[in-house]
Specification:
- The chain is mostly helical.
- The chain has a domain at 2-67.
- The protein has two helices and two strands, in the order H-E-E-H.
- It has helices spanning 2-23, 42-91, and strands at 27-31, 36-41.
């Protein structure tokens, strides 16, 4: 269900970005101190900014994913160890 919802959201965002790029033809100048881009359509500038935002978000999400994967492996190792200990305790006969 999550994959379908994320796919629909991605398609919707793509359509919205294409519409924004198409209808914003106003020339726009981007001036960084080192480099200057002149006469870029405003829609293209917005689209590039959105792409950079997605890439930066993915960068942070990959870090979060790697952290969660490391935690999952540690927890799985602890779980397996506890399961082995429980199995060993079940095999010991009860002494009175």
């Amino acid at each position: 269900m999550f994959r379908i919802l994320s796919l629909i959201l991605a398609i919707l965002m793509s359509v919205i970005s294409v519409v924004v790029v198409y209808y914003n033809n106003i020339p726009y100048t981007i001036d960084f101190n080192i480099i200057q881009f002149s006469e870029i359509p405003f829609g293209v500038a917005l689209f590039i900014a959105m792409i950079f935002g997605v890439l930066i978000s993915l960068f942070f999400l990959i870090g979060l994913l790697l952290s969660m994967r490391k935690k999952y492996k540690k927890l799985k190792k602890d779980h397996d160890l506890i399961n082995k200990e429980v199995q060993n305790l079940r095999r010991i006969p009860i002494q009175e």
